[in-house]
Amino acid sequence: MARAVEPPQLDEIRTWGATTDIVSAGTVFGxxxxxxxxxxxxxxxxxxxxxxxxxxxxxVADLIAFLxxxxxxxxxxxxxx
Length: 81
Known about the structure:
The protein has a 3-stranded antiparallel beta sheet with strand order 1-3-2. By secondary structure, the protein is of the alpha+beta class. Strand 2 and strand 3 (55-59) form a beta hairpin.
């Protein structure tokens, strides 16, 4: 039986750097390795995924914004006066 992995806390995620791997990002959403890759490959991962060669990277700032409740897809752009 697979053991449950505790999702990382927001304070820990803030220490990750600019990007993280798809598996680590998936743990934030309670996803395992296989499901994380499936969602990334089908462009359905909950936040932006960057493909670099064969690697999938996730922008940590997007994870933080998602967890803090910011809607990345519908946020209005800032108005320039």
